[in-house]
Amino acid sequence: MPSTAEIQAGLGEILEEVAGVTPADATPEKSFTDDLDVDSLSMVEIATAVEDKFGVAIPDDELANIKTVGDAMSYIEKNQG
Amino acid sequence: MSTPTADVVVTGLGATTPLGGDVASTWEALLAGRSGVSRITDDWVKEFPAQLVARLASEPGETLDRVRMRRLDRSQQVAVVAAEEAWRDAAGADSGVAPERIAVVFGTGIGGALTLLDQDDILEEKGPKRVSPFTIPMLMPNGPAAAVGLAVGAKAGVHAPVSACASGAEAIRWGLDLLRLGRADMVVVGGTEACVHPLPMAGFAAMRAMSTRNDDPEHASRPFDKGRDGFILGEGAAALVLERADAARARGAKVHAVLAGAAGTSDGYDLVAPHPEGEGAARAIGAAIRDAGLTAADIGHVNAHATSTPLGDTAEATAIHDAIGDHTLVTATKSQTGHLLGAAGALESVFAILALRDQLVPATANLDDLDDNPAVQALDIVRGEARKATFDAVLNDSFGFGGHNMAVVFTKA
């Protein structure tokens, strides 16, 4: 099971690949839309990549509640395994 | 405040083509007689009758960042590369023109075919949940125009003429109309195409429209030559920045040429085959010359559409012969670039403008043995090497499957 740090690093890699976010900027308090300029279509790509990397599917109604990197990290932590 | 005039000028040029990654390198390669045509070596091509292609000289990833590359179809990527060059050339960002007065007209023949086909593969292999959320904005035919609109911050309107291989020229005509009607103060116009993939290749080959001279790529595109046997599919984009002459003068812009006139007609003859005497083509050429306030005698040079297909080239030669006469210097640059479909009219207009600037008409490559058609025989088609000449007006014509005929006229700045 990946640690919190590993989840943050993995999310950072996904954000860099999908949206060109510098991994160091992908810190828990950052808002996807307001701070990292990630649009709604890119969020769909991120959800797919999260499923591939962590085996955690994020349904659309849950995805809508994920506003920050920290929200995504908690969701992955809670739902993995 | 001065009264706006209807005179429209070209203040920016951009291109990425099989001959070069920008306008200067493309023009240099064209004048040097270099060919952009090569044979495909991928495994899939083995059973294909037509295996030649004119690929980009410079990949768009050399110019665009990785995230933009991910979100844009290749046809959008090359459109943005060409448009950004034109926009820089026109110093558009420093023009002071409000975004609400900047428009884009960017055409494509096929659009985002690569995205459509790639995502269909993903759908078949991995299911609907794996299809990219960017599929639709990447494959829609207005996608290149929209991407260019974002790149230059256009808010006066973004338009996408779709008239097969006349799309690029139609974009120029549409841009002229927008400026004449006062609907915008600056318009980025152009055309784009990037559909080198087995399906379009198979489709064009099934029409018997493509050259099968597979063993001799550089000599396969042979407009007006007896031995021509079809076109070579090319990829790339070209763009022009248009604005009214008084506005360009007021901001001290460099002016490449005057966009003096444009016109379009439809054949009303056949969905695909050109009218054998180029009747609709001749009407478009004549109307464009009149729209420019000129007469046929004024047109010193024609950059012909001439794709190297047996029917198309003779129909066009007849149209040029009938509508302009035999004094004009004709060239067919697809002999080196291949056929960029929806980008062709924009690229060849860029070439016509550079020919006007340099007073130099590029040669038609591979024209060894003139077709017996009387119009081809009568025309002065430049071959061998580029020809110096004195002329003040040039014309570019473009035709597309569907019976679309477009002509645009440029005069000296």
Task: Explain the overall architecture.
The complex is a heterodimer of chains A (81) and B (413). With 81 residues, chain A is mainly α. Helices cover 57% and strands 0% of the residues of chain A. Chain A has one domain: Non-ribosomal Peptide Synthetase Peptidyl Carrier Protein, Chain A (Orthogonal Bundle). Chain A is built from 4 helices and no strands. In chain A, helix 1 (4-19) crosses helix 4 (69-79). Chain A is globular and about 30 Å long. The model of chain A has no long low-confidence stretch (mean pLDDT 94). The longest helix of chain B is centred in the N-terminal third of the chain and has 16 residues, at 74-89. Chain B has an 11-stranded mixed beta sheet with strand order 5-4-6-8-1-9-16-15-10-11-13, with helices on both faces. The two termini of chain B are 23 Å apart. Chain B has 413 residues and is an alpha/beta fold. The A-B interface holds A 18-20, 41-42, 44-45, 48 and B 65-67, 70, 129-130, 132-134, 137. Chain A: The modification O-(pantetheine 4'-phosphoryl)serine is found at residue 40. Chain A: It is found in: Cytoplasm. Chain A: Keywords: Cytoplasm, Fatty acid biosynthesis, Fatty acid metabolism, Lipid biosynthesis, Lipid metabolism, Phosphopantetheine, Phosphoprotein. Chain A: It holds the Pfam family PP-binding.
Which descriptors would you attach to this protein?
heterodimer; A: 81 residues; mainly alpha; Non-ribosomal Peptide Synthetase Peptidyl Carrier Protein, Chain A; 4 helices; globular; B: 413 residues; alpha/beta; Peroxisomal Thiolase, Chain A, domain 1; eleven-stranded mixed beta sheet; three-stranded mixed beta sheet; 16 strands; 20% strand; disordered N terminus; Beta-ketoacyl-[acyl-carrier-protein] synthase family protein (chain B); PKS_Beta-ketoAc_synthase_dom (chain B)
